[in-house]
């Protein structure tokens, strides 16, 4: 099969893309901060000026996705409008304005031999990003990789193929304006799934793979990748309402955490209510969710709330990405943390409480990448953390954890300075 790149197989295509990415990465390694920033600012300009082409492409993607029966939450992930595209452009500019992580000194010290030792950030090289239906990832991933001095190989899902290609065109135009190689940000031009397998095996061409999508995608990448992976597991996010929670605050946070956008990984999927809070304040939080159109799957005392449905065992520990939430009563902070340790995905978990001791016990009792107090889980996003954008929320424990921004897309080396220093 021909792919338009002169290659005959997905493996040959990825090898060709990889070789060109490696060459581009060598240029980016020494590219100035000013040139990288100029590329991103120019890309934002091209993206906004050409927004009608992006919207036209997105309409075609949306129509096809609707015909395929994608869920409302997945369609919401895919949809672009003026506000969302403006947000993508703002994200490009925000990344451009950030300090360049490349060359930053993490730590430095002198040793008795007379050597001065510095730990300095360096680019990783070539980053492969495999994502599903959110076309904005094209811009986020390309921008962050470029900022960190890395070349990017992007492979989006079939649902967003046209939208991603339109966004990618703006990124390439920005690179050209700044005099940087177009191969610095490449979009895999085929939806053949064999191309994903080829990326996962491309140890000579790709240094790190970042998967961004649902459980099936991440599981595939983790099972088959020979290239190191920054794991972005599903977002089974909990909100625990402690005995010392302010009732009005708790109700507002829970409603926002579930309903603001149900299709993002930071959406709450499980509500835990302390028994003491329930006894004191009643189940108004659950009633609020029902009134907002959320299907609340409950057990025990919460089943008495009108409009709820009985929870099945597998509703706990499940990522719904929809107007559905599981709810359970627990006995204090220890009950909440035990539940989260059993059913959570180490992504994002929140407590609502006015008690400092409860907060200390909660955050010490779980190992989530993001732990929040008195705030919605919907803040689990690199833009909201001041990173401008993020490729994903890494739930592993090595190298990168939490929002993966430009700084997390660097490695480091030791730069050692002597003055004719010899080892005795």
Quick summary of this structure?
This protein has 424 residues and is an alpha/beta fold. The protein contains 14 helices and 16 strands.
Q: Work out the helicity level.
A: 40-55%
Give the tally of β-strands. Answer: 16
Mean pLDDT: 92
Note the gap between the termini. Answer: 63 Å
What strand order characterises the main sheet? Answer: 10-9-11-8-7-12-13
Q: What are its keywords?
A:
424 residues; alpha/beta; Aldehyde Dehydrogenase, Chain A, domain 1; Aldehyde Dehydrogenase, Chain A, domain 2; 7-stranded parallel sheet; 4-stranded parallel sheet; 14 helices; globular
Task: Provide a descriptive summary of the structure in words.
With 424 residues, this protein is an alpha/beta fold. The chain folds into two domains: 10-232 and 391-417, Aldehyde Dehydrogenase, Chain A, domain 1 (3-Layer(aba) Sandwich); 237-379, Aldehyde Dehydrogenase, Chain A, domain 2. 41% of the residues lie in helices and 19% in strands. It has a seven-stranded parallel sheet with strand order 10-9-11-8-7-12-13, with helices on both faces. The chain has a four-stranded parallel sheet with strand order 5-4-3-6, with helices on both faces. It has a three-stranded antiparallel sheet with strand order 1-2-16, with no helix packed on it. The longest helix is centred in the first third of the chain and has 20 residues, at 10-29. The protein is globular, with a radius of gyration of 23 Å.
């Amino acid at each position: 099969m021909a792919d338009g790149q002169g290659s005959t197989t997905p493996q040959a295509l990825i090898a060709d893309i990889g070789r060109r990415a490696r060459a581009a990465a060598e240029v980016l390694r020494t590219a100035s901060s000013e040139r990288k920033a100029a590329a991103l600012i120019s890309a934002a300009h091209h993206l906004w000026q050409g927004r009608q082409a992006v919207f036209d492409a997105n309409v075609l993607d949306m129509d096809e996705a609707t015909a395929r029966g994608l869920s409302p939450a997945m369609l919401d992930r895919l949809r672009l409008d003026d506000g969302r595209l403006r947000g993508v452009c703002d994200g490009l500019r925000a990344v451009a304005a950030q300090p360049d992580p490349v060359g930053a000194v993490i730590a430095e010290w002198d040793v008795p031999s007379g050597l001065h030792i510095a730990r300095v950030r360096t680019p990783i090289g070539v980053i492969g990003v495999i994502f599903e239906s959110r076309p904005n990832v094209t811009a986020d991933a390309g921008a962050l990789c470029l900022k960190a001095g890395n070349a990017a190989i992007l492979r989006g899902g079939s649902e967003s193929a046209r939208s991603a290609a339109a966004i990618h065109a703006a990124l390439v135009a920005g690179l050209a304006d700044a005099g940087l190689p177009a191969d610095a940000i490449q979009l895999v031009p085929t939806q053949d799934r064999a191309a994903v397998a080829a990326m996962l095996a491309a140890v000579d061409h790709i240094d790190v793979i970042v998967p961004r999508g649902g459980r099936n995608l991440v599981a595939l990448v983790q099972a088959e990748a020979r290239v190191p992976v920054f794991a972005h597991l599903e977002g089974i996010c909990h909100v625990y309402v402690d005995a010392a929670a302010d009732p009005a605050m708790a109700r507002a946070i829970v409603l926002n955490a579930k309903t603001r956008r149900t299709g993002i990984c930071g959406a709450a999927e499980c509500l835990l209510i302390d028994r003491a809070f329930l006894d004191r304040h009643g189940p108004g939080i659950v009633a609020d969710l029902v009134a907002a159109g959320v299907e609340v799957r409950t057990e025990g005392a919460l089943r008495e709330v009108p409009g709820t449905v009985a929870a099945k065992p597998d509703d706990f520990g499940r990522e719904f990405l929809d107007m559905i939430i599981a709810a359970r009563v627990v006995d204090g902070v220890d009950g909440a943390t035990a539940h989260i340790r059993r059913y959570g995905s180490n992504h994002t978990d929140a407590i609502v409480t006015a008690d400092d001791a409860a907060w200390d016990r909660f955050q010490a009792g779980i190992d989530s990448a993001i732990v929040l107090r008195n705030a919605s889980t919907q803040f689990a996003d690199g833009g909201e953390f001041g990173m401008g954008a993020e490729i994903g929320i890494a739930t592993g424990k090595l190298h990168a954890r939490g929002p993966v921004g430009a700084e997390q897309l660097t490695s480091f080396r030791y730069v050692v300075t002597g003055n004719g220093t010899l080892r005795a």
